[in-house]
Amino acid sequence: MLLGDTCTRGCRFCAVKTAAQPPALDPDEPMNVAAEVASWDIDYVVLTSVDRDDLPDGGAAHFACTVRYLKQLRPSPSAVVRNDRPDPLPTIRQSARVTPRPLFVECLVSDFAGNADAVQCLALSGLDVYAHNLETVDRLQRYVRDPRASYKQSLHVLSLAKQFNSQLVTKTSLMLGLGEAPAEVIQTMRDLRERQVDVITLGQYLRPSKHHLSVVEWIHPDQFAEYRRIGEKMGFLYVAAGPLVRSSYRAGEYMMTRLLQQRELASRGP
């Protein structure tokens, strides 16, 4: 998790600590994270963070810098990178224990307050998957999320990411059991597909403490299976749906890796 451990927002489902002015960013974090992660024996990594509304770009440049460093250490040829800053990586290359194969990078990020420049900065950093969670259906947004977040803004951010980089896989997640109706979930899935969102995960909301939103309904596994069937029919490249599914679901990451590897091979041509 980048950008510190303190969030500037207070969503009613989340147990992360909050503050209006979190501690300053660690300028060495992008380089240190890249050097460490590049040494791991993994093919797929999810970088996520708290919301940082106190920063002009919401932390997008910090994220993008981390991704660029990772991709220089463990590149994937199909990644789209706009490298507009100095490259301090030669010293890292000499000391880092780098696993010699491509690393696919997913960034699960905030809405950056709808800042198009921030979205573009990250979308062109070389990442493979741009993830931003819609969390719930339109009607429940103000009840579930911080007032600074909105259904329309989240959809716009996901759409912008694809516009800035058509090669990106875009991804989102919904928590179910908060009082939404099946028709609302299906409409949300339609809205996402209209913005060319590629991947969706749907899981059961679990209350982190008695101070957070209560569970309204326990969704039956058969209903999750029906959402998966509907999503696949709509054209999502991948749908993970089940009571214990989360936005960084392990089986989902496996399928995402396969999807990205197939794209990688296709980009190389015959």
Automatic annotation (TrEMBL):
UniProt GO molecular function: 4 iron, 4 sulfur cluster binding; lipoate synthase activity; metal ion binding
- Per its UniProt record, what SMART domains does this chain match? Elp3
What enzyme category does the UniProt record give? transferase
Where it sits in the cell: the answer is:
Mitochondrion; Plastid, Chloroplast
Please list the cofactors this protein needs.
[4Fe-4S] cluster
Cofactor binding annotation: Binds 2 [4Fe-4S] clusters per subunit. One cluster is coordinated with 3 cysteines and an exchangeable S-adenosyl-L-methionine.
Entry-linked Gene3D superfamilies: Aldolase class I
The record ties this protein, via HAMAP family, to: Lipoyl_synth
What is the protein name for this chain? Lipoyl synthase, mitochondrial
User: Which species does this protein come from?
Assistant: Cyanidiococcus yangmingshanensis
